[in-house]
Amino acid sequence: MTVKDSVVQVGVLGAGAWAQFAHLPGYTRDPRCKVMAIADPVIERAEAFAKQFNIPHVYASHEELIARHDLDAIDVCTPSATHFSLSWAALEAGRHVLCEKPVAYDYTETRRAAALARSKGLKTKLGFTFRYSPAMRYMKSLIDEGFIGEPFIFNGYEQNSQWLDPQNPLRQVDHTADQREIHVSSLEGYGAPIMDIGHLCMGSRFAQVVGTMKNFIPERMVRATGTMMRMNIDDGDIFIGEFANGAIGSIQTSFVTVGNYPGIEARVYGSKGALICRMVEENGIAETLKAASADSVEFKELEIPQRFYPTGGSPRESWRSLFYSNLTHSFISEIRGDVDGNEGNFEDGAHVQELINAVEKSYRERRWISIPLAADGTP
Description:
17 strands; alpha/beta; oxidoreductase activity; oxidoreductase; 6-stranded parallel beta sheet; Dihydrodipicolinate Reductase, domain 2; Rossmann fold; 9-stranded mixed beta sheet; 2 domains; globular
């Protein structure tokens, strides 16, 4: 179902900071789409964004927005626990859906939503922001052109010190959960983007993994309560694995590793060359890409061609709007049929969530776990 040669009309669910600094600027930048409506239970926030981004209709109810008949796409930018129900409702209403990660904590639910979208001819997209960074787009282009040759090794890092200070309030954590066992947090919240990039760069998915999780700082300020609490979450984790194509890889994510936010780094090594993409805002620059070859083993920084940037984009733009503008541009292009395919969709999200579920299972059972998992979560 495409809307070729017409303006794609979008409705946005959620008026939080990520909508303000990433989603809405992305749509505003693209003349092929128009945000027609925004909804948030705190309607004052939605009203403020409507004024800022010239959005004509405002709702306090997500259901009211989804019920509109003039929308082509729904953008789900709400707290994680609501993602699946809102995405499902939007798909059932016949709308293309962009959803922030994860669609669901159980990969089988994400796969179910992907199947519903396929059955209706709808496009879906996950908020895998970093696969759309200009440097990563260029890196993937070089890989596709054969720069690295046969892929051998992938190393992925999410190095972030936002919560090294326990007084910085944690968000989107279940403070009522049983704290006698560790709960997945960094692995899912920050691991997902670099896992997606691993699949993207290696042209394959992890086939088996073994990993561990650690709670380094147990007492934290929790946003939901405004108090210090015992929060037994993985604020650091690491896993290694084997890809289905024979390559190997490692991924580390953390809330407590010193380094600037967002701290995503992807390294790919192959039979002919290697690439390092560092998507970290440092010294006013949003990202860098370095390359080496078998004939010239010293890494040298590459200039990213302008064709990989959104309109008016530059390395000195905030990574939030810079990367996300490429994401929304991709989504609108797919909806309109301007490009073939549907990258970073719910099926890709299901594979990432299955990997997260497998790493958690590996930690709890202290063993290698094979992927795919069975429907009941067993290997």
